[in-house]
Design a protein that fits this description.
The protein has nine helices and no strands.
Length: 172
Amino acid sequence: MSMNPAQTSSLEEQIPAHAEDERKVDLARYSSLLLIACGIGLVANWVGTGVDPLTALPGMTILYLVSVAGLIMARYMPFYLPGVAWTSLLAIIVTLPFIPGTAWVLEKVNLLNFLALATPALAYGGLALTKGEFDIARKSGWKIVIVAICVMFGTYMGSVVIADFSLRITGQ
């Protein structure tokens, strides 16, 4: 079935412009950034758990390879899923009990402390600001700073109260 040019252009207008751009992940750039994150993660794991970086390196290498494979799948699979979805799916598959080598993978990855790896990523996520957010801050003026400080303080204090309550209940 052939389409005339008018039908083709109307179909192109219906597809969001960013949908195809989401698949164009710069694999070289993201892979090198992941290497840097892995290095920082090894140091954070060493400080947090005392496991030296050479001992934890195989586990971090597994995480790196699964992450890069997830990005590759996000780029080249015939249907779109975000890279984090592909990475999660691969991580689940690699750790299924009936997959050969799962025991070794789990042994190596268990040397890594999840909180030591997640804290820098979460901190970056909390501090990362987009151009749009800067524009909003400029338009809002100095009052937004006071509101932001109050929100951060309230969130922190709420977390302290919940943590204290939880620790008292468990008896720790």
